[in-house]
Design brief:
Helix 8 links the parallel strand 8 and strand 9. This protein is of the alpha/beta class. The chain has a domain of 229 residues: Rossmann fold (3-Layer(aba) Sandwich). The N and C termini lie far apart (42 Å).
């Protein structure tokens, strides 16, 4: 394949919701992308990546598994930068805490162990989550708090509500920071809020499935979300690339457009999409919260504007319709 001026980068879990958009943006920017997937020959899972502009010239897909130590060695050794977006799928019904945490932490460390072996590696960008920041009890979350990158979720609070996803993401990120410090790896973390937008793949991610559920009248999934930040998937991809390309980037970066209570979101969607059976209201297991997120740090990288909530859900609905997951309704945009 032809050489490019921007070099070669690895994207782990390349067929995922966020990773696919990252691959798209990296190819458009002129990078040669080496994507890791569990089965490069599974066209149902990876076919959408080959449809991206520049894929035939500058995309390679190779096999790697998060839980197989050393399986990322070849991919990482061939690249100057690594975007670690792959993550074990964790759902609210998963109850084996030890298995969940072991998969998340060891999966991240397996990738970083491969990164340690590459002396030419410039930077690793880790996809973490705002769930590592925002989940606290009332005593640790004062009214109208502005949460920034110095904030960490309370593991005791998360465990009391069995929020395994947040625990797994928090412990995995902390393990990554410790490993990077001990081994001299230049690590930067991007912390997206709830990611909304169009799917490049026909198969839906867990977050896209939850969004689809709202438009079908589902009343269980968003109950646990409560007050939450929302961000367009394309903005998340752009933030990752800024974190990689900006030499002064360091530490954690919250990636967020707006913070809404779940019932504020439902009211907004009901006005915008009146023909769908969107629930009128949902309870919140966390109680009443008033926090917001500070995005001052990521804006210093040049991310000056985020798409608004209306645009991200417009794009998500259009995509769900295009893929046949959601029927069109004449009175909706």
């Amino acid at each position: 394949m032809a050489n490019t001026t921007k070099g070669r980068v690895c994207v782990t879990g390349a067929s995922g919701f966020v990773a696919s958009w990252l691959v798209k943006r990296l190819l458009e920017s002129g990078y040669h992308v080496l994507g890791t997937v569990r089965d490069p020959g599974n066209h149902k899972k990876v076919g959408h990546l080959w449809n991206l502009a520049g894929a035939k010239e500058r995309l390679e897909l190779v096999r790697a598994d998060l839980l197989e130590e050393g399986s990322f060695d070849d991919a990482v050794m061939a690249c100057e930068g690594v975007f670690h977006t792959a993550s074990p799928v964790i759902t609210e019904t998963d109850s084996n805490k030890a298995t969940i945490l072991d998969s998340a932490i060891n999966g991240t460390l397996n990738v970083l162990r491969s990164c340690k072996k590459n002396p030419s590696l410039k930077r690793v960008v880790l996809t973490s989550s705002s769930s590592t920041v925002r989940l606290k009890d009332e005593a640790d979350l004062p009214p109208n708090a502005s949460l920034d990158e110095t904030s960490w979720s309370s593991m005791e609070f998360c465990e009391s509500l069995q929020i395994w996803y947040a625990i797994a993401k928090t412990l995995a990120e902390k393990a990554a920071w410790e490993f990077a410090k001990e081994n001299g790896i230049d690590l930067v973390a991007v912390l997206p809020t709830f990611v909304v937008g169009p799917n490049l793949s026909h198969e839906l991610s867990p977050t896209s499935t939850d969004v689809l559920g709202l438009f079908q009248g589902e009343t269980t999934k968003f109950t646990v979300y409560g007050r939450m930040g929302y961000v367009h998937i394309d903005d998340v991809a752009i933030c990752h690339i800024l974190a990689y390309e900006t030499a002064r980037a360091a530490g954690r970066y919250i990636c967020n457009s707006a913070v809404l209570d779940v019932n504020e979101l439902l009211a907004l969607l009901a006005r915008r999409f009146p023909s769908y059976p969107i629930p009128k209201s949902l309870p919140c297991v966390y109680g009443e919260q008033t926090y917001d997120f500070s995005t001052a740090k990521v804006r210093e990288l040049g991310m000056m504007k985020f798409r608004d909530v209306e645009e991200m859900f417009d794009d998500a609905v259009e995509s769900l319709r295009a893929h046949g997951h959601l029927l069109s309704r004449s009175s909706s945009p």
